[in-house]
Amino acid sequence: MFPEYDVIVVGAGHAGCEAAVAAANMGSRVLLATMNMNTIAQMSCNPAMGGVAKGQIVREIDALGGYSGIVTDHTMVQFRMLNKSKGPAMWSPRAQSDRMLFAAKWRKMLEENALIDFWQEMISGLIVEGNVCKGVMTGIGLEIRSKSVVLTNGTFLNGLIHIGEKQFGGGRAGERASTGITEQLVGLGFEAGRMKTGTPPRVDGRTLDYSKMELQPGDENPSKFSFSDTPQAKKQLPCHVTYTNPDVHEYLKTGFDRSPMFNGRIRGLGPRYCPSIEDKIDRFADKDRHQLFVEPEGWDTCEIYVNGFSSSLPEDVQFNALRKVAGFENMKMFRPGYAIEYDFFQPTQLYNSLETKLVKSLFFAGQINGTTGYEEAACQGLMAGINAHQSVQEKEAFVLKRSDAYIGVLIDDLVNKGTKEPYRMFTSRAEYRILLRQDNADIRLTPIAQELGMNHLENRIQRVEQKLTNQEEISKFVHNLSVKPEEVNDYLNEIGSAPLKQQVKLASVLSRPHINLPEIRSHITALDQKLNDYDEETILLSEVSLKYSGYIKREQELVEKMNRLEEVKLKDDMIYDDIQSLSSEAREKLKQIRPKTIGQASRISGVSPSDISVLLIQVGR
Predict the structure, then answer these.
(1) For 453-531, where are the alpha helices, taking DSSP H only?
(2) 529 and 609, same domain (yes or no)
(3) 306: domain range?
(4) Are residues 598 and 487 in the same domain?
C-alpha cells in the first residue's frame, strides 16, 4: 500500500510543514502524516508571525528556502516593523495573518510539491530496529517504512486541556490528543517531561466598542518577510489596544480557587514571557492594569483574538471579567481560553542536527523539544527536514553556528543547555545580533542553502549578488560625496544636530545619531538622484553597513576568535570520567551532551573556563 519513503514527518503544524518542504525540495520522497488534513498549518494561538527576534527567524527561514515568510506575505492583514526607535539589530518584522487563508495557502503549497504524500491518521508508534528508526505505526495498525522520521507533535503528545475545574484530553480545542509515542520513547530510554501553554478567549468583534480603545494601525509603507517576489500589502486591517483595570482583576481573583494553575492540577511549566492573565495578576500585584491587544482573525470574519488574556479560569469568570474591560461591556464570547499540558523531551538528548542520540535517523522539531512559538517551531522543522534528507543521502549534517543565524543560537541553546520552561527566542540570547539582522538574512544564508541543494533558490542567488553590488555602489558614493554646509545645515538645525562649519564627506554626516539616508537625501540633490536607482531594502542595508561599520567589524573579530574553538574537535569516545581535573558537574554534563568541539563544550551550563582549559590540554592545545 505504501512505498518506502525517504522521510516521514509526523505532525503538520508549523514545524511539520517546514520539515516536509525542506526535505522534498532537496529531493527526498516525503510522507506528511497528520491526524486531521483540515488543520494543516493551523494557527492554534495568535494569528501572527514574527515579532522581536521571531521576525528575524522568519526571514532566516525564508532565506534558507522555507515557506513561512512566503505564506505570511500572501495572507497578511497587517504589517509592523517593531523596535524602529532602537538600533537596526533590534528591528523585528511582525505581521497579522488571515488565519484561514494562512492554513489554506500552506496546504496549497504543500500539495503542489509532487514529492510530498499525505496520510490522515494518528501515528501511535515508531518502528525501531537496532537503535535505528525505520518508520512508523499508525493507530489502526498500518506499518509505513522510511529511511528517517521527523517528530513534530506540538502540544498533542498526551495533551490535557484545562478550563477551570474541567479537564479533558486534547491536542488543542476540538481535537484529540496523540498517545503511544511518549510511552515508547521513554521505554527506549528518553527523558520526558511536561510543559504547559495557553490561549485566550475568542470573541465576537461585532459586539465590541472600538471607540473606547486605542487604534493600532499597520505601517504606512508595509514591508514583507520574503526575499522573493511576494505581494506587498495594499490594504491593512487595524488592531486596537485596551487595558484591564482593578475591577477586572478583582473579579478574576474570585475564580482563583477553581484555577487549575493555583490548585495544583497543572504540573507542567508554562512560558514565563507569555503568562496567563491570572498569573500576571498574581505575580505583578502592584500593577492596576495590563495591556490587551484586540486582533482580528482575518478579512472575512468577526472573530477577535484577545492577545494578553490567556487564561485557564472557569469560562464564566473569563466572560464576566472581560465584560469589565473598556470596549468589551457588551462582548459575546465565541470560546473561552484554556491551558494545555503536553509531553516534551529534553533537547539535550539531541545532536545539533536535531537527530536523537539514542535512535539513529529519528529527528525531533518544535514543541516536542520544549520550545514555544510558531517561528521557533518552524525553523526547527526546516533544519530537521534538511538533516533528515542529509542523513538519508549519507551526507554531513547541516548545522548553523551561533554567528550564522538566530536559528543557530536557538538550536545551540536547546542542545547544550536544555530548558526547564518553554523556550522563546529573544534578541538578548544572540551575542552577535548586529551581524544577525533581519535585513541581511538573505546575504547570510541563501548562498549556503543553494550549496545544500535547495535548487528552487536559483533566482534568489542572483538577487543576493545584485544586492551586494548595489550596496557597494552606494557605499562608495557616500564615502566620496562631499556635502556643503548650505545644503544640510537647515536640516541639521531642525533635528538638533550640530551644523557643519565646512565641507565634509557624506559618510561623516551619516555617522551621526538620528540621521539616515531616506531623510537626508531630500536635502542633497546628487544623493537623491543616485538613490533613485535602488530599492528601499538595499538603501537600508547600505546605511546600516556604513553607520555601524565599527560595531560590525568588532563582532566579526569576536566570531573569528570563537570559531577557532569550534575548529578544535573532541573525540566522540572521550572518557570524561578519566579526566580527574574536570569538575564533577562538568564530567556529568560532558558525558550527557557529548560535545563535538571545544566551542560547543564552552557553552554547556556547568562547564567552567577552567574545565575548558583542561579539555584544551587533553587535545594537545
Answers:
(1) 458-480, 485-494, 506-510, 517-520, 525-531
(2) no
(3) 202-336
(4) no
Is the confidence at residue 516, as pLDDT, over 90? no
Residues 536 and 593 in one domain: no
Say yes or no: 222 and 310 in one domain.
Answer: yes
- What is the model's pTM? 0.92
Same domain, 224 and 331: yes
Same domain, 206 and 324: yes
pLDDT tens by residue, 14-34: 999 999 999 999 999 999 999
Residue 133 main-chain phi, psi, to 5 deg = -80, 125
CATH number of the domain enclosing 598: 1.10.150.570
Tell me the backbone φ, ψ of residue 215, rounded to 5 degrees: -75, 135
Q: Are residues 303 and 214 in the same domain?
A: yes
Percent of the chain with pLDDT strictly greater than 90: 72
Identity (one letter) of the amino acid at 604?
A: I
User: For 485, what's the count of Cα atoms within 13 Å in the CB-facing half-sphere?
Assistant: 6
SS3 114: coil
Q: Which helix (H) or strand (E) holds 10?
A: strand 7-10
Decide which of 336, 360, 395 is a domain's last residue: 336
Per-residue model confidence (pLDDT) at position 589 = 87
Q: Which helix (H) or strand (E) holds 32?
A: strand 30-34
Q: What is the side-by-side order of every strand in the sheet holding 116-120? A: 116-120, 30-34, 7-10, 149-151, 362-364
Decide if 414 is inside a domain: no
Q: Where are the beta strands (DSSP E) in 279-376?
A: 291-296, 303-307, 333-335, 338-345, 362-364
Calpha distance 143→148 (Å, rounded): 14
Closest CA to 596 of 619, 566, 564: 566
Number of domains in the chain: 3
Mean pLDDT on 370-384: 97
Cell of 10: 509526523
* Alpha-carbon distance values, 369 to 170, 251, 411, 510, 580 (Å): 19, 36, 10, 44, 33
Cα separation, 437 vs 196, in Å, equals 31
Spatial distance between the Cα atoms of 235 and 77, rounded to a whole number of angstroms: 7
Rounded alpha-carbon distances, angstroms, from residue 33 to 39, 302, 386: 12, 32, 18
